[in-house]
Amino acid sequence: MQGPQARALNVNQAWWDGLKKGGRRPSQRRLRGDGMALYAMTCGWLSCDLNEMLAGGEGRITFPIPAYLIDHPKGLVLFDTGLHPHSIDDPHTLVGPLADAFDVRSRPGDDIVSRLERLDVDPGRVRYIVNSHLHFDHTGGNGFVPNARVVVQETEWEAGRIPELVHANFYNPINYDHGHIVKPVDGEFDLFGDGTVVTIPTFGHTPGHQSLKLKLPGGEIVLAADACYFCQTLENMHLPSLVYDRARMVNSLLLLRKLRRNGARIFFGHDPDFWRSVPQAPVKVF
Ligand SMILES: [Zn+2]
To answer: Tell me: the pLDDT tens digits for 128-139?
Structure first.
C-alpha cells in the first residue's frame, strides 16, 4: 500500500513496537482467579428483515449484539465493543448508512461501559480490543476504551480508510476512528504468544473479518462473530443476502466447521436462541 494510509499504518506499527518494549500499559490486575476466563456481554439489540441475515428469510428478527471480555494473566481483552451507547437516541449519526435497514432495540445499560461496570472493570484497564471487523455493531464502544490497542486484520483496517470501501461496506468511521494505537495483523496472530488467544482470518462478510480462537480451561471456543450469524448459517451454509465476498465467506464457514469437528465450540455472531444459552457477565462462560 502506498501514500498516507501506508504511512499511518507504519507509524502505528512503530508505536506498537515501542509500547511492547515497555511503554505505558493499562493495569494488568486480574478480575478473579488464576486461569484465563471468558465473560459474555450483551452490548445492544437490533432488528431487521430476516432476509438481511438469511437470504430469502421472511419477516423480522430481533437479535443480540455480543461482546466478550477475556481475562488473561497478561491483561484484559475485549472482543468487539457492541453498539455505541447513544445509538438509541441518534441512530442516523451512529449507525450511519445502515440506519434505515436496522432498528436499534437496545435498552439503557446495553453498552460496553455499563457491562464492564458490572464486572467492576474500568474501561481504561483494558489492554486490547480485538475487533472482528469495523461494522457499527462491533466497534460502537471502541471510543470508550481509551488505552486499548486495537487488533484488527490489516485488510479490514485498510478498507476502513479507503472511501470507496467505506461506502461499499457500510462502515461508519465515527465508531472506530478514535486515534487508538492499531496493531494491523495478517492472518493468524497469537496475542500473548502462548496459544490461548489467537485471531483467525474469516474473510467474506467484510474484506478482513476475523474470528477469535480461545483455549480455555473448559475447552476450545471460537468466537465467530459475523463469519457466522446463526447456528443454521453453519448447519445449512445459509448465507446472508448481503455479503462482501461469497466465495470467501463459504471458505470461512468451512474453516469453522473444521474447527468444530476438531472439538471447538462455535459461538455464533447474532443468534438469539444460542445467546440465551450463554451465561451473561458477571457470571463466567468458562
Ligand atoms: Zn454484526
So the answer is: 999 999 999 999
Phi and psi, residue 208, nearest 5°: -135, 40
Neighbours of ion ligand 1 (CB under 5 A): 137, 226
242 vs 184 pLDDT, higher one: 184
The C-alpha atoms of residue 25 and residue 253 are separated, in whole angstroms, by 36
What does residue 258 show for φ and ψ, rounded to 5 degrees? Answer: -65, -45
pLDDT at 8 over 50: no
- d(Cα 280, Cα 261) in Å, to the nearest integer? 26
pLDDT band at 218 (very low <50, low <70, confident <90, very high): confident
Kindly give the distance from the C-alpha atom of residue 273 to the centroid of ligand 1, in angstroms, as a whole number.
Answer: 16
Task: State pLDDT tens for residues 64-83.
Answer: 999 999 999 999 999 999 99
CA 136 – ligand 1 centroid, Å: 8
Dihedral (Cα; 76, 77, 80, 81), 10-degree rounding: 20
Q: Is the pTM of this model over 0.85?
A: yes
CB 99 within 8 A of CB 144: no
CATH 3.60.15.10 applies to domain 33-276: yes
